[in-house]
Amino acid sequence: MREYDSAGIRNVAVVGHGGSGKTSLVDALCFAAGNGKRHGQVRDGTALTDHLPEEIERGFSISLGLAFAEWMDSKINFIDTPGALDFQGDALAGLSAADGALCVISAVSGVEVGTDRMFQLAVEREDPVLFVVSMMDKEAADFDAVYAQVKAQLTANVVPVEIPIGSGSDFRGVINLFTQKAYMYCAGSKGEYEEASVPESEQARFAQYRQELIEAISATDDDLLERYLNGADIGRDEAIAGMKEAMKRRDLFPLFCVSSENMIGVRALLTELVQLMPNAFEMEELHGFTGSEGNDTVEIHARDDAPFSAIVFKTSNEPHVGDVSMFRVLSGMVRSGDEVFNATRDVTEKLNHLSLPLGRERIEVPSLHAGDIGCVARLRNTHTNDTLSTQQHPIRLPELRFPEPLVHFAVHAESRNDEEKLQQGLHRLHDEDPTLSVHYDTDTHETIVSGMGERHLDIAMATLQRKFGVKAELTRPRIAYRETLTASASGQGKHKKQSGGRGQFGDCWVRMAPLPRGEGYLFENKIVGGVIPSRFVPAVDRGIQEAASRGVLGGFPLVDFRAECYDGSTHSVDSNEMAFKMAGILAFRAVAPKCKPILLEPLDLLEITVPDEFLGDVLGDLSARRGQIHGTEPAGDGKRTVVRAVVPQAELHLYATPLHSMTHGRATFSRRFAGYDQVPAEAAARVVAEHSRELQETS
Ligand SMILES: Nc1nc2c(ncn2[C@@H]2O[C@H](COP(=O)(O)OP(=O)(O)OP(=O)(O)O)[C@@H](O)[C@H]2O)c(=O)[nH]1
Ligand SMILES: [Mg+2]
Fold first, then answer.
1. Separation of 19 CA from ligand 2 center, angstroms?
2. Distance (Å) from CA 582 to ligand 2 centroid
3. pTM of the full predicted structure?
């Protein structure tokens, strides 16, 4: 394997809507370059970057996949990302490791929701983006229509650099507008082509598109524009250089076309990726933190002679191997066997068997240069988002922020003996995929697993079974209702037992009052004159807390109240802590019902970005879910509105599904816990009845 330094490396994230042909294209590109040994297919499970059993079984990508192609003295690292929204965490991670995005659009389906989303994400990251129209061999393929859609829906700055010759089963070549040549492909080969002059029949289209391209490039540069207006010709190399610079500023987005199936346009695309995508040396300098406090910043350049630094952008757990960390070297060189420093966790790690990932394969290499992407197995204490550097120059990079989870389920092992394995497995899955998270809900006593969608969690359960042998089931999570008081009252709790032998005596008077929401519980000892000996007062407190944890309305914990113990009496022989705790319980049971208790439910704050044409539907649906709209404001692009609403969690289970169908998948939302509020009386009665039935069934 040849070595490449940063000037010879391109890091390209392949993004787009689900099923647009990303994985097939990456396979075709690597096969054409000779790095893929066969022309793999998604449908028979042989595509280079779809190799997980869950991916092969379902026929789509679930996790990011890495491969590379060596072309024109350069190495192009491809990061194939999943298009499905459920797995957008990996698409984000993939973009974060790349210097440019290749956005794939199906020639049949055109611009879709996922195309829009991934394009916006790439632009937000200030990456150059190159569009590819895929599946040109399909019968309904329509290059011109897709071009028009991109222009209307994504960016007016798109311009074709290649146009197809023929379409559907007649798609047989491409015309490159830089070289002004036609490339006619020989079907069934490794994508070899013959160069020819532009056929007579295509001359008119060619002339029109060529003019459009040269005008577009000239318009981005004053010198070029002046020469163009003076009638000078813009040469091939000048046009390419102009396009590359314009792409870096996101002033232009070139458009290409391919058929991965028939290997047409694939080689031409490799050439253009080398020519137009920035190499790793051109990476914008990054800023990392140094120093023990992490408050000094340092510039990071992709130079081999700089101190080593790398960012781990993905971890995957492989059977018989363990955790494999995939990282991008940001600066410096690293050799197999080097000891490096993980400044994020303050541990040293040894990088044994440095490798280059190529689909499921890993090719061992003696060293990696700045700018390259590599992987290493079995780091002891390194996770996704950690920065690796050296003890002499410790560096940390800002963490990539993953989206908040959108759906929550309770998870149970089918067999009770597997509970521990389930917990371990779930935590391993979280290490692989930060958008999947796990926590134990102490209110409802359930383990909650959260993710980006139903399918995300279903597939996580399949992975759990395959990798950790645990069969688990997902159920709708219980809602963590609570109770609280709305009025003050006082009363007595007296525990007295005299049944032969030593008796029990505890007696207290307690006043209870509501506290503001979120204040919890406060106990005040107002006993004067020792009517209850001070050693027994804490027992009253404990009794009240124990009773409060079981509530008064429906068995939910009662919170946000103050209890004041202000009177009582004692017995010189029969009083003890147990008896006063009982008295506390009895006082709570006597007083709390008099304090007008109410039921509280947890609420989430939703932030929904919705295209204006669906705003009415979304608002109507929110009010049907008992949501309170806190505000609406136009999103930056003038076509969408951001809605903020507070909605009871009980009304939000799987909200992603109805929102998706109401808006044809064009709305996005985030949610986070926003606090508790009173449940309206009618709904409260229903909840209480249901809960007491459940309690009876389980007791
Ligand atoms: N005829 C034809 N079919 C193609 C071509 N490229 C991809 N396909 C088929 O389209 C389907 C989707 O292709 P993938 O490569 O899996 O698409 P993807 O973008 O990776 O999809 P996700 O991983 O779900 O985001 C598969 O069945 C492919 O065989 C092509 O050039 N021609
Ligand atoms: Mg795929």
1. 7
2. 63
3. 0.88
Work out whether the CA dihedral 78, 153, 260, 57 comes out positive or negative.
positive
Residue 305 has pLDDT above 60, yes or no: yes
Which residue has its alpha carbon closest to ligand 1 atom 32?
A: 135
- Position 1 scores a pLDDT of 86
Pocket test for ligand 1, best of 14, 31, 41, 42 (most atoms within 8 A of CB): 42
Q: Contact at 8 Å (CB) between 308 and 332?
A: yes
Query: Which residue's alpha carbon is nearest to atom 5 within ligand 1?
Result: 135
Atom of ligand 1 nearest to the CA of 20: 19
Question: In the chain, which residues fall in CATH 3.30.230.10?
Answer: 483-596
* Integer Cα distance of 317 and 321 in angstroms: 8
**CATH for 416-475, options being 3.30.930.10, 3.30.950.30, 3.40.50.300, 3.30.70.870:** 3.30.70.870
Residues in contact with ligand 1 (CB, 6 Å cut-off): 16, 18-24, 41-43, 60-61, 82-84, 134-135, 137-138, 259-261
Residue 114 Cα to ligand 1 midpoint, Å, equals: 15
Lowest mean pLDDT across 642-646, 648-652, 686-690: 686-690
What 3-state class would DSSP assign to 190? coil
**What DSSP line would sit under 117-146, residue for residue?**
HHHHHHHHTT--EEEEEE-TTSTT--HHHH
What are the structure tokens assigned to 406, written together? 């959108």
Determine the topology of domain 7-282 in CATH: Rossmann fold (3.40.50)
The number of angstroms, rounded, from the C-alpha of 639 to the middle of its chain's C-alpha atoms is: 25
The DSSP annotation for 456-472 comes to HHHHHHHHHHHHH---E
Strand partners, 349: 340
DSSP characters over 395-437: -B-PPPPPPPP-EEEEEEESSGGGHHHHHHHHHHHHHH-TTSE
Q: How many residues does the chain have?
A: 699
Residue 311 DSSP one-character state: E
Distances (CA, A) of 503 to 301, 575, 580, 585: 80, 8, 13, 18
Protein residue closest via CA to atom 21 of ligand 1: 19
| Top-level class of domain 483-596 | alpha beta
**pLDDT at residue 29 is higher than 70:** yes
Q: Side-chain half-sphere of 502: how many Cα atoms within 13 Å?
A: 7
